[in-house]
Amino acid sequence: MFKKWKWVLALLILLFPVTVIANTLSDSDPDTDVKEEEEKRANDMLRYQSNQFTQPENEEGLVRETSLSAGYEKVAENEDLALYVEEESLALQIENKQTGYIWSSGLSEDKEYNLNETWSDMAHSAVTIDYVDGEDKTSSESILTNESEVSVTEQEDGFSAVIAFEEAAITMELEVQLDGDSIEIHVPQSEITEEERKLAAMRVYPFLGASEGTEMDGYTFIPDGSGALMRFNEKQPSSMAPYQASIYGEDEGFKRSGSEEEEVRTNKAHKITMPVYGMTNGVDENGYVAVIDEGETFADLIAYPSGIATDFHWVTAQYNYRYQYYQPTSQDMSGYNVFQEEMNEFDIKERITFLNEDKANYVGMAQTYQQYLLDRDMLKSGNDQVDVRLEFLGGEVKSGLLRDSVQPMTEVTDLPDYVERLQQQGVDDMHAVYRGWTEGGYTGTLPQKFPYENKLGSDRNFEEVNNYFDQNDIPLYYYTDYTKAYEGASGFSGQTDVARKINAQTIKSEGEVDEYYYLSPEKSLEMAIEDRNEYEERQITNLAVDSSGNKLFSDFTSDSLRTEVVDVFQDMAEELKAGLDSLSFYQPNDYMLAQSDRYLDIPMYSSNYSFVTDTVPFLQIVLKGHVPYYASFSNFHNSPDDELLRMIEYGANPSFYLTTEPSHELMHTPSEDLYTSQFDNWESEIIHQYETVKQSLGQVEGETITDRTVHEPDLVEVHYSNGKSILINYKSKDVALDGVEIEAKSYQVIDRGDPS
Fold first, then answer.
1. What whole-number distance in Å separates Cα of residue 481 and Cα of residue 545?
2. Contact 432, 469 (CB under 8 A)
3. Any idea what the Cα angle at residue 375 is, between residues 372 and 379, rounded to 5°?
4. pLDDT tens for residues 617-652?
5. Fold observed for domain 703-756
6. Are 277 and 245 in contact (CB under 8 A)?
């Protein structure tokens, strides 16, 4: 007995110092608590000062002096602008008559630049081309490279010019015209002539508004993710590569399988969904926004910060008339690279709008692009109501030793129960999306959509649930996709219905858990028309469509390039909407916005490229007040409090990905990365987020964003068209602004009065 007590006493003596130290660190040392709090605040500030947030503007920013240069002739003028051209290079100077500022597309004769001859020729020339010789090698030529022959003809609102490139022996026509506060640039494809050498790519006025080093305050805007800025500051990027990305993503019809671009970023890159870019020469002083009106499906955006190749910040579009692709010559995939034989047929049309004073910033750019979309019926005013998206996973395929089975996660009859539970707790506005409802579960069954998966409910159960949602005026969307075709699934032919590349290879997803073929767009349209009767018979009135609104590719099964595929997908959406109440898309490209009643999974960040200095809600400013949009799933967020504040700042509604069964049941399925989804665990957070956005964004329903003020990196104010402003405080302490108290990690809605 004594020995036992001796060991117990010895153990207590050994543990005592550890216990004392632990108690001292956790409860009894106020200095340690203060240090930890200070470290947390310091880390928070570093985060808010990173390029994933927006930095305050420099109120005393530099703006360079401008003047008209010798050798330029005035060719057109209106109330807003005066247009001057230098005949030899077709370089432009554009006088903004509202501010007196002169925009230049070229270099000044009286200034020395750190540019070699090739860069100098490109910077000052209106057009630079890449061309292919007989051996499939590319070379570049600018107007000034070999003193190309240029012939200018003045027109009523501008000029046209015929350009004959000396070395390439390629001729084209360039037109520049004034239209109010904008210039329109046009290169008609019908006027391009070639001889032995073939046109591969073209850049038009790449140095318009270019800024050297840190000679002025300003930035380049690129439509990366929600939107991103590249400021003209002293900090040189560590990257040695510029920004270059294809509008609407790289064309899978020409992409080599397994190829990867080297990208200077720290997370997955966002696709460009909007053919727009811009620049400021002095924030809130002078700016422009360029919208690619035609040719966007074959265009890349290129943006160079100072320090990469030259000392200039510049941005432009590159138009690709011929892509290079890999042509296999044997079964082991050996082969060679070759350029397209035929030229991609498109006109280049860019509309560049010049912005003044308080509109010369990314907010003004977004508002200009918004109006552009509205004028062309590419954006409609919908029911921009605050609600919450509840996305449920029905069934998922589960791998088995002998055969696969379906793991039921949320039976269809569970959905009304969850709706009623939320309604009883004050959640009045919501919509639901139901995934994995087809026979076989969520992954691996498309393009076949019917019958329903019987483990989730009978046909009668589905009918009753559809009636419940209809009678309660709550939209129930059935998740589907008209692009994915899984290997082994039924409903398509791998020979005739799958999209193919220019080298006859099938187009497949790569590197994803659920690999699939791309359906030929013509087959997608055919299936959509056939499915309309099924939807009507089964009382399915709302669809949430993935992939088909954001994946754009050339298809050589139907000999359709991207321009034709856009038309097919738009026709498909119109066919579906003719028999539905509502259609939602996941991250749709801009040409699908007019068909989108809801925008799902809107990007809330940029791609975090090293040369980007700020992330901005450009896309959200374009859409706010017209199309309701929804953030990614809140049950995937690392910092839920901050992400909820960001939703309020960006005007986004919350979303949750939910199941009845615990998520560990998804082990050994393609959805095994869904690690927390059980409704019972997320019910209180759904209610909290709904109440928070309803109290904040509910006061600006249907309103547009008129301005955005970054008082500090972690204190932002968003202004709306009804005079309301929302102040968002990311700080870990209370703050006061203009007599308004905003609690830590909170917001305040205030009335600023008439915004006009």
1. 5
2. yes
3. 80
4. 999 999 999 999 999 999 998 888 999 999 999 999
5. Immunoglobulin-like (2.60.40)
6. no
